[in-house]
Amino acid sequence: QVQLVESGGGLVQAGGSLRLSCAASGRTFSSYGMGWFRQAPGKERELVSTISWSGGSTYYADSAKGRFTISRDNAKNTVYLQMNSLEPEDTAVYYCAARMGSFWNYWGQGTQVTVSS
Q1: pLDDT at 27 over 80
Q2: Distance (Å, whole) CA 23 – CA 5
Q3: Which residue has better confidence, 7 or 28?
């Protein structure tokens, strides 16, 4: 069982930065691939970025490439999403998730990110 708690969301002006954190419980955190998703009002939840259990492999959605950086610290059981050059279109609830295999098994409760123009 893994419990995930996101933090770091907030209100920021366009062009600004935020760093989201996702703290995981459990001693098997380093076994899980991790990901960040987001859901804007009236839209489907979408994948933003993923990172492998070792941190050696990452993926970014086109909307995140060049602006967002995912990282993890297995010693701290934490995954991060550094978001730069934020745009109003990035406004959403951001969720972290953990997977072992193909399915996202565990989800956090989400943290709100609001980017004002």
Answers
A1: no
A2: 5
A3: 7
Gyration radius of the chain over CA positions:
13
Distance of CA 10 to the CA centre of its chain: 14
One-letter amino acid at 75 equals A
Question: What CA–CA distance (Å, rounded) separates 34 from 91?
Answer: 21
pLDDT tens digits for range 47-85:
999 999 999 999 999 999 999 999 999 999 999 999 999
Residues in the chain: 117
- Measure Cα distances from 21 to 85, 101, 102, 112, 117 in Å: 18, 22, 23, 12, 24
